[in-house]
Amino acid sequence: MDLILFLAFAAIAVICALSVVLQTHPIASALSLVGVMGALSVLYLLLGAEFIAMVQVIVYAGAVMVLFVFVIMLLNADAESPRSTSAMAKALGLPIFLAFAAVLALAVLRLFPDTPLVRFGEFTGGGPADVGMALFTRYLLPFEVISVLILIAIVGAVVLARKEID
Amino acid sequence: MNGVPLSWYLVLSAILFSLGVAGFLFRRNIITIFMSIELMLNAVNLTFIAFSYDLRQVNGHIFTFFVMVVAAAEAAVGLAIILTVYKNRGTLNADDVNSLRF
Amino acid sequence: MEFFIVSTIKALLVFFVLMTTLAYLQWVERKVIAHIQLRQGPYRVGPHGLLQPLADVIKLITKEGIVPPHVNKFFYFLAPIIAVSMSLIAISVIPFGGEIEVFGITTHMQLTDLNIGLLLVLALASMGTYGIALAGWASNNKYSLLGGLRSSAQMVSYELPLSLAIASPLLLLNTLSLREMVTQQEGFMLGFLPNWTIFQGPAPQLVGMVLFLIAAFAETNRIPFDLPEAETELVAGFHAEYSSMKFAAFFMAEYSNMLTAAAVTTTVFLGGWLPALPGMAGDLIAPAVFATGGAVCLYHGLNPARKRDKYTLPVFALVFFGLAALFLAPPLKDIAMPLFWFGAKTGALLFVFIWIRGTLPRFRYDQLMGFCWKFLFPVAVLHLLATALLVALAG
User: Which of these, A37, C204, C256, C304, could form a disulfide with C310 (CB 3.0-4.6 Å)?
Assistant: First the structure.
């Protein structure tokens, strides 16, 4: 069951990620990215990260990506027009990408040759209570710092996006 | 119940990350470039969660949480910048936004 | 194996009841609105228009599904699917009652209990936004696009007060599992006041419930916040280009969202399936209500206004008396009683939804955003802080 779920959702994640990169229309890319996030949240559940899985859907897929879709719709962005690239770039692009992915994957396999098996339900320390406890005791200072960061981001976004008053 | 080796999760994360890098280099629409960055962040988050499972610790979850918060802040500011760029240049193509002043 | 069979039966049962409720909710809404506006409402199909939902379903299925030529086909068809599936999944974590025993099998009156149940409901609600935003964009129509833009801005904004309003009762309940929330609210204070979160010490959540309901109105696109489909300015908003079953899907999603909002409010604030009165009084209310209904029917059957009332109304009276007897028979009582209380509370909240639709005008768009960011959000933050302070001081 673990294997089937992992393979199914890993396949969905990879296909959606390919679609993010290959689709020419920004809306299609954005929705594919939502698909990646949904598949990843199921994988998080398999890894025992219940709270993070839900936050992933609520904050990432439900708020950040809605903002992306909103901006794309607002600007009425069209499909990207194909641009003229050199023949060498076209010929070398795919092999270099494959080489990069292979090097990353091989490095991971070399660094962690015999990792333990992941079974659903073996690690249950990722519930809301555990995350909250860690967040408000050990990581209290980073938590406060990041709230200041959010405040700065809000002010920055308002300043950038406000109407120019002539 | 048969399990899945932890390294498979890491390899999946590597594949997603390299796809994000490819999208970042290959796309020309600013918004799509931005989404490729989000894809890379997601791939890294998966690694954090996987190692958190391996070490039986919640620390990786906290890190992922912070990454999400930073991503949300980044999206707010980044999209505001994109809106301003579009207002001033009338284009979303990264190649056309190439002059410091006009 | 037994688990799968029981789950399948429960899922089918819940699905059937949910679909019937959604269809009849629309009949109730039309009737209530009609009476508020001094009209009759549906009256032609069946007695008092009771078969109107059936006629509507047949109409929607058999209508021609027009696909305008200028739409983006893939997203045009995807949007209603997202909207309806996200709203229907949410019902799976709502508890309708406690533990029951049927044919020697012990089970809960709930499809599944997750320890992150409430977060799942919020997540599904936030994913539902895509259905509407995409429908607006894929229709390739100015009115639809405006409706879609309005909806994504509105739903993202109102999600904040919604989450903050529901966070404060969680401070009292200390759990995210919807079933445990209800068990936390068992018992009575001073012998008569139910221990629900809206009354529970140290911080009664009455304000929290009002805030949650206001935000829920906006999340479900109901009047006075139904700007995404404002007929007078946007034709029909995001679903202007949808017809037949695709329109029915949006329609169903809206009513299902409304039902989920009412059910979640019941569970979190109003003690779910728990009775409102202690002891015998709580047990006797349900049979008393149905027996009164039966008596009224019998009275009108004996003094018939029309000829056929002589035969139809006594039959209804018998049905009502039968239902009343159901609540008194010991083995069935344990199943029927929680369902009665859950249905009564959810029904009352749904009536509020319909009542407000018949009463309030629509907001203007800037008023809607101003109301959210300048009033609802600060009040929700203050309410959460006050609750946290009271909970910390008490204990």
Answer: C304
